[in-house]
Amino acid sequence: MNKLLSFIGSAALCMGLCMPQASAEIPVAIGAKVGTPGFGGEITVGLHDNFNFRTGVNAFSYEYDGTESDVEYDFDLKLLSFPLLVDWHPFYGSGFRLTAGAYINSNELESTAVPTGTYDIGGVDYAAENVGSLTGEVDFNSVAPFLGIGWGNAVGEDTRLSLALDLGVMFQGSPDVDLDANGSLASDDDFLANLKKEEESLEDDIEIFKYYPVVMLGLTYKF
């Protein structure tokens, strides 16, 4: 985690140091954030008195275990996204903002089933030795529209160091689940049909994640 933070911080600093020389008329700020999309580095560019553009990178990984559709899994959550956002500050001089844009979305969830003697797949019990290794991957739309509100104007006239808060929703679409088995049943038509049912059941269980909440708090610095 420390290496990730160091990388994000270094990348944001390097990008920020390169941009201020582009034009003294264009205000630029860099920031570091943390929240539901992960740890992030960000660049803000002033477009107009009331409009800013923001981009950067967010990343995080987390391993945990759980049960879905009566099958025990080891999960590996990998968050990676790249925001492309426009902020509108409707009240001049105020930090309040409305934000719209999209995230280039590489969030995914990998899973490995934990053998417990039998697997319940599509409502049918199968012996673990016949199923073999059961692995899965969950991913979402590669481009996720975003709408939100927030506070803080990183490139405001009287701003040098400031806090930033983001609240919103990333519309990343319905989850797409892909399960694979490598045992003796891997080419059995009935088994594959039940595996498809299991995929659909998992998609229903995690349908709520088509709307991914974004809550981020950060610190920004204007050049």
Description:
It is a single chain. The protein has 223 residues and is of the alpha+beta class. The protein has one domain: Porin (Beta Barrel), CATH 2.40.160.170. The strands form 2 sheets. It has an 8-stranded antiparallel β-barrel with strand order 1-2-3-4-5-10-11-13. A two-stranded antiparallel sheet has the order 7-8. The two termini are 28 Å apart. The N terminus is likely disordered.
Summed up, what is this model?
With 223 residues, the chain is α+β, with helices and mostly antiparallel strands.
Keywords:
Porin, 223 residues, alpha+beta, 8-stranded antiparallel beta barrel, two-stranded antiparallel sheet
Please state the overall shape, judged from the principal axes of the Cα atoms. elongated
- What integer is the average pLDDT? 87
Query: Would you list the SSEs in sequence order as H and E?
Result: HEEEEEEEEHEEEEHE
For the largest beta-sheet, the strand count, sense and barrel status come to: 8 strands, antiparallel, barrel
State the oligomer. Answer: single chain
The total count of helices amounts to 3
In the CATH scheme, what's the topology name?
A: Porin
Per DSSP E runs of 2 or more residues, the count of β-strands stands at: 13
How many domain regions?
1
Beta content? over 45%
Helix content: 10-25%
**Major sheet strand order:** 1-2-3-4-5-10-11-13
Q: In the CATH classification, which architecture applies?
A: Beta Barrel
How many angstroms does the end-to-end distance come to? 28 Å
